[in-house]
């Protein structure tokens, strides 16, 4: 028999929970469990609060107990799956989601969660089935629309992905991260101009940034231009990720006499790289379970002078932390070279190739600071000697290749590559792509008379094997309009020349920056025909144009792109310049204007 007092208490705690008053909800659930220790709903929802706070083992115990008490409760199984997935127990999480679906076949949420998990496992056909089923069951549920958008984007089906993202934003206009997925993907599409991108970012900012402007407060940082500065790096990618590959050497090389380094890490699944990043900073802050408001307060309490965004609009960005302006100087860098749309971010780092002198910078809300050489600083892959692949070309037919994220391989790009393959009829094309993308690739190339047998796809590989794949490639082809960054560096380090086509956006000029800095400006095309001609010339007489593989690696290693001390000096000089500008404004501003 139900205790009326317990049920009234539960109703009050649940109202607090739904209103976001988690502390009050937690007190209510705990009070209920003191009176009724086997109250399933209180156990379950107390576990949900523990999960939201990042207390995963507590959440597992509470929700697991609730699921045992009520084995027919699908929501318990679904939330149990979320906890297990966060703990890295993917097999158990999958089983929990499938049990929730078995208990309630019309329950869309576990279908969405299972679809997301299967996407991470590269089982995209099964993932798509789950996501589309979730949408059929609940067309107004936003998350499966955005997850389906991610899946379609990864297959290079950009128009369909953008449609899914726009539907998700329409359904949940309050969720900035759904909207961020759309903004990132628009950079991949060749039909979006800089003006189009600027307009879309303004719409995002009007919705998500403008309401937070009232929360900005004056800063108490000591405005001495030459004192030791506190630099905070904010990223979800302090893990096995290209961002961490660039950051690890930089963090070790920072001048600790002049800079004190903080990392704000939004990493849900820490790995060995996470542990190494942690050893290379002075202060580590785990922000995964913290709200944007809580992270902003932590930054302010730490007295950060220069706060650096490393994600832009990529997954799990913390742009709404920056929107609150917790640090006096804020800058975006590295994630990809574009605008954030956040007026509280003062600067964006770039270089003279990404944003040439005389180019229109009005599309960026941030002030653009050009680094003297290059936007990136690349270091040789960190592999044991036994794992490092040789550089020599493997036997095989002449091969053009692209190992970039396949989302960048647009229809425009494929049609351009078809022209190259027409010019070199004995060459093949090697691509990194999901198996499901083969039909689109083959259909596009077949329309230009290129046989399917000339196309080879490779899937996700261990890092050393990925690098070794360059031994099968004679000439790497940069996609358009979102060119390669890390993959271009990897290709050059493996002695493979890269042909790039420069366009109207900074992301289309990434290859130009890397190649120009490596002394390979002859590989930068300004027109489609020039791109085809350069690729043809390289394949016919590669060594005459760029030298052999070892010569190309040597040239790259001696370039500014791989000169870490030089890059760190330039980056630190940029931080110091930004800081001095703030100090000058602070000293000249009226007291009521200081912030």
Highlighted features:
Serine Threonine Protein Phosphatase 5, Tetratricopeptide repeat, alpha/beta, Rossmann fold, 595 residues, 25 helices, six-stranded parallel β-sheet, seven-stranded parallel β-sheet
Structural domain tally: 3
| Overall 3D shape | globular
Q: State the end-to-end distance.
A: 60 Å
CATH architectural category of the largest domain: 3-Layer(aba) Sandwich
User: Whole-number average pLDDT?
Assistant: 96
Number of strands: 13
CATH class of the largest domain: Alpha Beta
How much helix is in the residues? 40-55%
Major sheet details: 7 strands, parallel
Characterise this structure:
By secondary structure, this protein is α/β, with parallel strands linked by helices. It has 25 helices and 13 strands. The mean pLDDT is 96. 50% of the residues lie in helices and 10% in strands. A seven-stranded parallel beta sheet has the order 3-2-1-4-5-6-7, with helices on both faces. It folds into three domains: 4-174, Serine Threonine Protein Phosphatase 5, Tetratricopeptide repeat (Alpha Horseshoe), CATH 1.25.40; 212-377 and 569-593, Rossmann fold (3-Layer(aba) Sandwich); 399-561, Rossmann fold (3-Layer(aba) Sandwich). Strand 11, helix 20 (486-493) and strand 12 form a beta-alpha-beta unit.
